[in-house]
Write a structure and sequence with these properties.
Elements lengths: L3 E2 L5 E5 L7 H4 L7 H12 L20 E5 L12 H17 L5 E5 L1 H13 L16 E3 L4 E5 L4 H5 L5 H15 L17
Parallel strand pairs: 2-3, 2-4, 4-6
Antiparallel strand pairs: 1-3, 5-6
Helix pairs in contact: 2-6, 3-4
Length: 197
């Protein structure tokens, strides 16, 4: 399933895969499931989404400055994609990222998306720190392509247990907004159509 959002986005949210009863059913990432309820509510609170809910593909939702994609393109059995599935899908994500030439921040939703992104950036020739920093919520890694931010996935497993709270999710996305804002320090926006590489 292809990603969606603002083609001029400064922020890319990279998820795991389409949920079997959410995105796989509705045809749009994080739409029609509880993970999306959390994600879009946060995006709306921060002014990145036109509404706090995403129930179906034609519900009028618009994203501002954000694009959402997934490491794996199809709903995996038991929501557990294999590394083979991930590697087969990476060329699609790589192409999406290449087209999103204004992306300055990539928020990875979970450890699987982080591993996928790391493989993708390495394959694209991006210089990466070694050893790879361990995934954690709030992780921040600068690369020549974009700053990578770690965020626990807004799955029920994380939100029901309190591992991820609304303030935690909001804080990561607020940090992404700050990092993606291309200003000269005096609040003046700097327009650029060239890729950040």
């Amino acid at each position: 399933m292809p990603g969606f959002g603002d083609p001029g986005a400064g922020i890319l949210l990279l998820g795991l895969a389409p949920a079997a009863h959410g995105a796989n059913r509705t045809g749009r990432m994080f739409t029609g499931d509880r993970s999306g309820d959390w994600l879009f509510a946060s995006l709306h609170r921060l002014g990145l989404a036109s509404q706090a809910e995403a129930v179906r593909r034609d519900d009028g939702l618009a994203l501002h400055g954000v694009y959402i994609a997934s490491a794996v393109r199809c709903a995996p059995p038991d929501n557990k994609p294999t590394t083979i599935e991930r590697d087969r899908c990476l060329p699609f994500v790589s192409r999406e990222l290449a087209l999103l030439d204004r992306v300055r921040v990539i928020v990875v939703l979970g450890g699987f998306a982080y591993q996928a992104l790391w493989s993708l950036l390495a394959a694209d020739g991006v210089e990466l720190p070694r050893p790879r920093p361990k995934f954690s919520h709030g992780l921040e890694v600068s690369t020549d392509r974009a700053t990578v931010l770690g965020c626990y996935h807004p799955s029920q497993q994380n939100t029901f247990t309190g591992r991820l709270t609304e303030p935690m999710l909001d804080a990561v996305l607020a940090r992404a907004i700050v990092l993606a804002d291309p200003t000269d320090g005096g609040g003046q926006r700097i327009e650029s159509s060239s890729p950040t590489k």
